[in-house]
Design goal:
Oligomer: single chain
Order of helices and strands: HEEEHHEEH
Strand content: 15-25%
Shape: elongated
Number of helices: 4
Radius of gyration: 21 Å
Number of domains: 2
């Protein structure tokens, strides 16, 4: 009969192997976008629609943030070859409150 310690050791070993396989798959499937000789790792970017879903904001608010400069220029990519598709860096942006703007 296996002891708890032996079962835990097997679990740890299997977990390590799965982590190794996952890392290899991630390296194998890493997709990059090259625009004007600059590479972008696609894991770091989302479409505007996906960004809104992930961070639970309305598309109109995101468009407003882009127009007002809340989203920095380096955090937005427009791809003319894909009918003007816009990608946004996958990180949380927040507009300042009205009180913070007044200061």
């Amino acid at each position: 009969m296996e002891t708890v310690k032996e079962k835990n050791t097997v679990f740890v070993e299997v977990n390590k192997k799965l982590d190794e396989v996952e890392a290899k798959l991630m390296d194998f499937t890493s997709s990059k976008l090259v625009i004007m000789d600059k590479e972008y790792n696609l894991r770091e970017w989302l479409t505007l629609s996906d960004y809104c879903k992930k961070y639970n904001i309305k598309p109109s608010r995101l468009s407003n943030w882009i127009e007002r400069g809340v989203i920095p220029n380096g955090s937005l990519i427009v791809i003319p070859e894909l009918n003007g598709l816009k990608l946004i860096k996958d990180k949380l942006y927040m507009a300042r409150s009205y009180e913070a703007r007044a200061v």
